[in-house]
Amino acid sequence: MKVISSLEDIKSYINDHKSDEAISLIPTMGNIHSGHLKLIKSASSSSLKIVSIYVNELQFNDRNDYVSYPRTLSDDLSICEDHDVDLVFTPDNSVIRKQLDDDKSDLPKFTSYMCGANRPGHFLGVYKIVKFLFELLEPNYAYFGKKDFQQLLLIKYIANTYFSKLKIIGVDTVRDKNNIALSSRLSKIPSESFHQVKLIFQTLMIIKKKLLSGLNYNTIKEDCILELENNNISVEYLDLRSLETLKEQVNTKQPCGVFIACYIDNIRLIDNIEI
């Protein structure tokens, strides 16, 4: 496995390999867990597998969140090597920031909903780093988890707008035995609070069952938020939205999903399920 940090070296590497085999890209911010491994395993074994590791400051609206984000590069590299990754790209922050700051971007309307409404600048930061990686690494395939569904829609928008030959592959959320969606932020949750984390998926499933029984979402939402907050879970949003446009829905007449963002012990977690 090769590890590259400089822009010059990665450009040279891509030029040497892009005509010989398809390139599969798995962009990450590191702290690699089983969710990331599913992305890596989803990539074709016949392709050149590239994992990028870069904690993108621009997509953090909270400076403290950026500073405290888990950084485990040595462990990440070992995991990547054990799972047949061909190249890990670990760009230098100062160089990347200059590249990203120069990019002027217009975001689609759906990025103003949900996470976009509560995390100023987040999706602009995502847009800039992903577009930069696509331009630099020239992948044929790129893999992203469905847990970050709003982000996945943005990635597909970027590909459709600028990279017509790039195929974006959404990978199902990986959950533990308690149906907790795996996240790098879980490492910051105290063990005594994990009974609260389990309530997130349980709540989504309760909502799904009630919606499929024919209930209107507006009659369900308030009680579910109250139950979560009675368990010391601060709800940022709990929305029923279209899977295509992310516009709010009140029933399941069109493909939709339930989306949640909440705080447990001041740690922000997100999840969603399709209805």
Give an overview of the whole structure:
It contains 10 helices and 9 strands. With 275 residues, it is an alpha/beta fold. The protein folds into 2 domains: 2-171, HUPs (Rossmann fold, 3-Layer(aba) Sandwich); 184-274, Pantoate--beta-alanine Ligase, Chain: A,domain 2 (2-Layer Sandwich), CATH 3.30.1300. The chain has a 6-stranded parallel beta sheet with strand order 1-4-3-2-5-6, with helices on both faces. A 3-stranded antiparallel beta sheet has the order 7-8-9, with helices on one face. Helix 5 crosses helix 7, helix 7 (122-137) crosses helix 8 and helix 9 packs antiparallel against helix 10. The longest helix has 19 residues, at 194-212. It is globular and about 60 Å long. The termini are far apart.
Rg of Cα set = 19 Å
CATH A-level architecture of the largest domain: 3-Layer(aba) Sandwich
Query: Which superfamily, in CATH terms, is the homologous superfamily of the largest domain?
Result: HUPs
- The unreliable regions are none
Q: Which CATH first-tier class of the largest domain would you pick? A: Alpha Beta
| Percent of residues in β-strands | 15-25%
Count of DSSP E strands? 9
Please list the strands of the largest sheet in the order they lie side by side. 1-4-3-2-5-6
Provide the residue-averaged pLDDT.
94
The end-to-end span amounts to: 41 Å
Structural class: alpha/beta
Q: Fraction of residues in helices? A: 40-55%
Give the domain tally. 2
Q: How do the SSEs run, as a string of H and E?
A: EHEHEHHEHHHEHEHHEEE
Overall, the morphology is: globular
How many helical stretches? Answer: 10
How is the main sheet built? 6 strands, parallel
Q: Classify the fold: give the CATH topology of the largest domain.
A: Rossmann fold
